[in-house]
Amino acid sequence: MPADTITSADGTPIAVHTTGTGPDVVILHDAAVPLQHYHALAEALEHRYTVHRYHRRGMPDAAAPDGSETVATDLADLSAVLRHTGARSVIGHGTGGFLALRAGLNHLPLHRIAVYDPSLSVLGRPASDHLDPLEQAVLAGDPARALTVLDRGTHPDGLAARLPFGLALLANRLLLRRPGRRATAGLLPAALPEMRRVRDHDGPPGDYAGITAEVLLAAGARSPEHFAENCRAVAEAIPGGQAVIIPGAAHDAPAVAHDELVRPLSRFLAGPAVTA
User: 3-state secondary structure string, 233-254?
Assistant: First the structure.
């Protein structure tokens, strides 16, 4: 189905991809994950919901960034999508989860916010000291090094972090032969500013206490532990917040769209109607 092209407040075009029937929900992608990786999740929800997806600036079929983008820029774009679709629910993954929660804090017209492994910086957790070497690798045009730094920084207990750096780097040079891995590397120039915005909004869990929407904070049982820790802490701070750990799920669970993730998302989105 062709995308609808709408415009943000500053006139920037946004391509909105829509599938399904039922109440409207917007999926907010992680900065390093293209929309096609959420096809399975959209397909799993489309029999009960009308699912909308769009790329944020700097991504395929989206406007090129000019370096002035902020969280406010992302929120203005999301606001345009919400106006166009009428959606009052969002699902955010990774940095998309961060954006979803910022939307709740800024009182965008949302009734339900579901996030999975949201990229949050809560009292310095997780560490962000990999961002500078990641930027150096991106600027040097060395995608294998960039991916290695990213893997080791965001998954400190993963295989890439346990291997000597040289071996992990060699593995990524080989993995770049795969289209999916090349696609991830190609997204890093646009993803890095989003990662820095997350770091710049570090603070205590109470920073999110102003969200009035119902919020589901989900983390994968096989994801790095900081996701679950931050989800639990932030859920306790939000009046309508709840945390859940998804059994057997890793950070890529939205791409897999396993029933263990889809079921609680669908139940949460189908909760009692909220009146304005």
Answer: HHHHHCCCEEEEEECCCCCCHH
Is there a contact between 151 and 130 (Cβ–Cβ < 8 Å)?
A: no
The amino acid at 113: I
Residue of 44, 100, 94 whose CA lies nearest to 77: 100
Q: Is the dihedral of CA 261, 42, 198, 186 positive or negative?
A: positive
User: Considering the chain, what is the average pLDDT of its residues?
Assistant: 93
From start to end of the chain, where are the E strands?
Answer: 4-7, 13-20, 24-28, 50-54, 89-93, 112-116, 214-220, 241-246
Compute the chain's Rg from CA coordinates. Answer: 18
Tens digits of per-residue pLDDT, 149-170? 999 998 888 777 889 999 999 9
Which two structure tokens, joined as six digits, stand for 70?
A: 């902020």
Residue ranges in 37-157 assigned as alpha helix (H): 39-45, 71-85, 95-105, 131-139, 143-154
The answer to whether position 68 is within a domain reads yes
Question: Distance between CA atoms of 263 and 48, rounded to whole angstroms?
Answer: 12
* Residues 247-273: tens digit of each pLDDT: 999 999 999 998 999 999 999 999 875
> Domain containing 227: what range?
4-123+202-269
Number of folded domains that form the chain = 2
Q: What is the pTM of this model?
A: 0.94
CA atoms of 262 and 155, how far apart (whole Å): 24
Given 197, 221, 252, which residue is the final one in a domain? 197
- Backbone phi, psi, residue 224, to 5°: -55, 145
